Amino acid sequence: xxxxxxxAERRSIRRFKETPVSEEAIRSVLxxxxxxxxxxxxxxxxxxVVQGAEQRAVMVARMREGIAKLEAQGMGTGSAKWTVxxxxxxxxxxxxxxxxxxxxxxxxxxxxDLMDIVDVQSIGAAIQNMALAALPLGLGTxxxxxxxxxxxxLCAWLTxxxxxxxxVALGVPDEAPTPRPRKPVDExxxxxxx
Length: 194
Prior knowledge:
This protein is an alpha+beta fold. It has a single domain (3-174), classed as NADH Oxidase. The protein has helices at 3-9, 23-34, 53-72, 80-89, 110-134, 151-158, 185-188; strands at 45-51, 92-102, 140-144, 162-171. Strands 1-2-4-3 form a four-stranded antiparallel β-sheet, sandwiched between helices. Helix 2 packs across helix 5 (110-134). The radius of gyration is 18 Å and the shape is globular. The protein starts with a helix and ends in a 6-residue tail after the last helix.
């Protein structure tokens, strides 16, 4: 599959078959992630792979705890409850962390803040590589940010002090979504120069 074809065919998958994903396939997707461009070649991504029914159940329980805590405080949680159900059925969830940023002890200098932005951009490229690499393997992905509603609970369970950037659900798709509408290039582009 050519890159342009993979870009055009990639979809966010929200329904997965129970089919297990091989370690070889997971490693292939993670290897593609590590080939992403990164500012100053910092390679700031770190991955935690969660699989198996028992671990998924614990992951889902931690997500529900975080969501319930926020709702008890009167905060809206958007689509997070639906996302939990997706995570419960995805054979694999890959949590993605920033290697150089922790929740404690941050200096918050301008230079730190700028590098954090660069690192998050690099991690975004790694996640996109994962989504594209999964496609020719017959796998689908869902880039998940609703994990932010349970950061404390998930990081404690995963024993991670680094900043969680996202999670990626991975598995054999049990749906074939149609393309979502996209704005035309001319609507989102301004040209400067000849």
